[in-house]
Amino acid sequence: MSSHLNEECGVFGVFGHSRASEVTYFGLHSLQHRGQEGAGIVVSNDDKMVGYRGLGLLAEVFKDKQNLDMYGDKAIGHVRYATSGGSSLRNIQPFLHRFYDMEVGVCHNGNLINSKTLRKELEQEGAVFYSTSDTEVLIHLIRRSKQATFEAQLKESLCRIKGGFTYLLLTKDALYGAVDENGLRPLVVGKLKNGAYVLASETCAIDILGGEFVRDIYAGEIVIITKDGLRVESYIEKNRHAIAAMEYVYFSRPDSNIAGINVHAARKRTGRRLAHEWPTPQADIVIGVPNSSLSAASGYAEESGLPYEMGLVKSQYIARTFIQPTQELREQGVRLKLSAVKSIVGGKSVVMVDDSIVRGTTSQRIVRLLKEAGAKEVHVRIAAPPLLFPSYYGIDISTSSELIAANQTLEEMRVFIGADSLGFLSEEGLIESIGLKVDDLYGGLCMDCFNGDYCAGLYDYEEEFYRKLTPIQQAFLEKRK
Cα(67)–Cα(286) distance, rounded to whole angstroms? Predict the structure, then answer.
């Protein structure tokens, strides 16, 4: 696990556009923040399916424009960060499966929490897996289904997998999208000016193409797009939506909307609430850690009446630090990525607003940067509760031993990162700031990383979770009983 949060993945699909591969490229480009390890596109026409994928950023994978020259009016694409399976070309999606009776492309965002059990069961029945990714499990389930149609086989198979996920599947004549039964991972439908439909992890991908938002795909729903139009059905008895709070806190772009709530506005409200819960009257300025914390920092500054300054500058020409394969290279990446503005922070008491602390090493380095630049004091304010628990639904924070909040008290964390004070937003503060209305459709937010409440269960991870609980985690859970 790296010193900061690791993204999930991003998925995009289009149906009914003569330049489907290029549309998918631009859609994926807007989702690049969700995965920087690899990318791929599969295109379908009425005759055959072709695909291309590779390791690296989207622009690196498709730097040879011939790789985008894939004819077809429908396509799916994927940008990847590995939450399950290793980092190799074999695991880069979309996968393109060629069977005697059909071809199907598939890509997936999230994590299946019963994939180990299902994989073992399938292998015992003779299945041979090409990759180590849990994405492939769904295809094996589909091929073993006794249902009469592909759509029925897909629905039956979706009922067997558990966790947080969105799947896109492409055949020669249809595009399918599915969301897990709790709605943890987002999927939206849009329509382009020429009438083509698109599916995407975030609304920003629809906006960048000049499209119109149609609707969210809710918990336990499947969307089917063919030449006859669009249908949305439930494949399982609906549970109320439990959107992952981390989509608002960190993962999604600020210009995206989730369940009708703008991400930037939600983050700004967390900053305002943080200023009430952890005021810093002796401070001179407020700064944000670029980029995902800037909205919260502006909210903190406005509510506290302190000047909002650009005290940290981020290089736009380096990938996020977690993508580096070793800790030494990650730390070098932090030094290359951020620099403190001495003329702004020198001699000042600074409030540094960030969205999270994972291991604490990145926060430690940033505090040191500010103090080396002459900051008199650095007060760290985190616009979310402490990351106390692992997440098994598609976020790569699954090791309790490396979560600083699971192993240290607030004061110990403050000392470790070198801050003059440290404060986290409360659970209630985060929930109220996001402002998701609880009703028949939305059951609220999934706060698993913050409070250990796993709404989709733990399945294959349950024994490991309880065996590795730290004393701080145990005390937290006892208090919540």
Answer: 46
Which class is domain 261-480? alpha beta
DSSP secondary structure of 109-157: EEEETTHHHHHHHHHHTT---S-SSTTHHHHHHHHH---SSHHHHHHHH
Burial of residue 304, with CB atoms counted within 10 A of its CB: 0-12 exposed, 13-18 middle, 19 or more buried = buried
Specify whether the CB–CB gap between 15 and 202 falls below 8 A.
no
Query: Could you give the residue numbers annotated as active site?
Result: 9
Give domain 10-239's CATH architecture. Answer: 4-Layer Sandwich (3.60)
End-to-end CA distance of the chain: 30
Contact by Cβ (8 Å): 397, 390: yes
396: exposed, middle or buried (Cβ count in 10 Å: 0-12, 13-18, 19+): buried
In terms of Cα–Cα distance, which of 309, 312, 308, 306 is closest to 283? 306
Orientation angle between helical segments 115-124 and 136-144, nearest 10 degrees: 50
Report d(CA 13, CA 104) in Å as an integer. 14
Two tokens at 14?
Answer: 């289009």
Cα–Cα nearest to 408, from 479, 478, 473, 355: 473
Give per-residue burial for 171-191: e unless 16+ CB within 10 Å, then b.
Answer: beebbbbbbbbbbbbbbbbbb
Spatial CA neighbour of 224 closest among 180, 163, 173:
173
Rg of the chain on CA atoms, in Å:
22
Q: Closest by alpha carbon to 218, among 173, 182, 249?
A: 182
Quick one: tokens of 142? 């589909």
> Taking the alpha carbons of 12, 14, 18, 23 in that order, is the dihedral positive or negative?
negative
Give 417-444 pLDDT, tens digit per residue. 999 999 999 999 999 999 999 988 899 9
The pTM assigned to this predicted structure is: 0.93
Where do the CATH 3.60.20.10 domains begin and end in the chain? 10-239
Name the band, by pLDDT with cuts 50, 70 and 90, for residue 325. Answer: very low
pLDDT digits (tens, 9 = 90+) for 260-298: 999 999 999 999 999 999 999 999 999 999 988 999 999
Rounded Cα–Cα distance for residues 3 and 6 (Å): 9
